[in-house]
Write a structure and sequence with these properties.
- There is one protein chain.
- With 81 residues, the chain is α+β, with helices and mostly antiparallel strands.
- It has one domain.
- It is 35% helix and 17% strand.
- It has three helices and four strands; from the N terminus they run ββααββα.
- It has a four-stranded antiparallel beta sheet.
- Strand 3 and strand 4 form a beta hairpin.
- Helix 1 crosses helix 2.
- The radius of gyration is 12 Å and the shape is globular.
- It starts with a strand and ends in a 5-residue tail after the last helix.
- The N terminus is likely disordered.
Length: 81
């Protein structure tokens, strides 16, 4: 399977972005699942993947979001006033 790295996150801290399935934790989620976690539309999530705001990997023809990168993205977010 061809693996192409699209975008990387620089942060090293993590927080839980979504409920996980115990010992069989998924390493990646779909862009649609990431959109659900973030509370945004699917099309917005794909746009943010395209611009690099949401880190993603291309696995063959699929685009997936590493759960650790999504955790880092959420952890690095600053509260808005």
């Amino acid at each position: 399977m061809n693996v192409t790295h699209l975008h990387a996150a620089n942060n090293t801290s993590t927080v839980t972005a979504a409920p996980r399935a115990g010992a069989h934790e998924r390493a990646t989620i779909t862009v649609t699942e990431a959109a659900d976690v973030l509370g945004i539309s699917r099309s917005t999530a794909y746009e943010l993947v395209h611009t690099g705001t949401i880190p993603a990997l291309r696995l063959g023809r699929r685009i997936v979001v590493p759960t650790h990168a999504l955790d880092q993205l959420l952890h690095s977010a600053r509260p808005t006033s």
